[in-house]
TrEMBL record:
Uppermost EC category: hydrolase
GO biological process, one term: N-acetylglucosamine catabolic process
Official protein name in the record: N-acetylglucosamine-6-phosphate deacetylase
Family membership noted in the UniProt record: Belongs to the metallo-dependent hydrolases superfamily. NagA family.
Cited Pfam families: Amidohydro_1 (PF01979)
Active site: D308 (proton donor/acceptor)
Residues covered by the Amidohydrolase-related domain: 76-413
UniProt organism field: Coemansia guatemalensis
Co-factor binding comment: Binds 1 divalent metal cation per subunit.
Cofactor(s) in the UniProt record: a divalent metal cation
Sites where the protein binds Zn(2+): E158, H229, H250
Catalytic activity reported: N-acetyl-D-glucosamine 6-phosphate + H2O = D-glucosamine 6-phosphate + acetate
Amino acid sequence: MAAASTHSHTSNDARADSKPSSSGPITQFYNCRVLRDHQLVDDSLYIQNGKIIDPAKMFWDEQRIPDVRIDCKGGIVSPGYIDLQINGAYGFDFSNDTDIIEEAVSNISKGLLLQGCTAYCPTTVSSRPEVYHKVLAHLGPRAGSIEDGATILGAHVEGPFISPQKKGAHELATLRVAKNGLADFEECYGLNNLRKYAAYVTMAPEVEGVLESIPKLIKATGICISSGHSNATSAVANKAHTSGANMITHLFNAMHAFHQRDPGVIGLLGASESRPFYGIICDGIHVHPHSVMIAYYAHPAGACLVTDAMSAQSLPDGFYKLGEMDVDVHGGHVYIKGTNTIAGSVITMAECVRNFIKFTGASKVEALENATLHPAQMLGITDRKGTLDHGADADILVLDDNLFVQRVFVAGQEATEENVKFTKKALS
């Protein structure tokens, strides 16, 4: 946890003497290796007014020196982690806690921030239309801050236009088809809700009406589309991708099993031309380490680490809710109560990053980019998230050499247990 090691840092940060400026104080991160241009570079990083800045302008144009200097003690400076798929944490669930949705969003956002996840997509499982019409407005884009927690990038709406055969932990009674095209998406979600509040939607391209609707839905709302919970053949999966679906939801899970003559959605990793991004859960439970290795070798630039965490993340074992279903959490495993069906995870993004290296032997740079750059590329937001380029948001992690989070900054402000307060929901 980041906050555990942040208590005493502020008083040790050096304040340099510099002439005051109306443009705001400048902070320098020094004695560090900065993740930049696909490598770790011995360099400094400068931020001002919540953004990463070019020091040349500071030195030569404004003739200033930093107001605050932060000694990173030889650590790694990385963009903050981005989780594209998380259903809940700390006892709260985005699909089930509809009556206290603001409380759920607030506490999850703050808790995730202290873990090092500075931006995320709150995820809803397949639900009835009234749930979407009630909660989506609360899951829309929101800037990150000490007061509000991690940045919300927009909702990930997972279902209900998915395959009954590959529904996983989604409730069968909520699943739908789209035989009327966009009219069915309008009735289910409200297209304006998707346009304003959603980042992307997971759907199965073989479900009636979905494949034909993908380009229309993208044009009407501007959201991204991900193929998932799908029994699609390789031909249908490929057509969905060429029609605009740029992501695969939790690769290997809830999809057509790989077969040498018809690899299904998984086969997109072997496409000779364009290949989609893919979410992958590195908890060692959802996906065998060897499968993670196969995906990594097939398409390393498309890997997006996701937790797919549910409400029990960071809480003790017990019984919890995922949407309207009861789930049993024990020893890191999450199952629908009374079954052996996996129902999300309880892992954190920081653990996923370390596990990815353990499972694949990938470099630290590759693992970090799977949790920062690639998710931002998938959503098309690299102008502000997922990098440490000049002009990007100052969402920053200071990590030790084993990639444990030491310090967390959101919009240029340090997040600690002292200034980011949140509550955990008690066991039901």
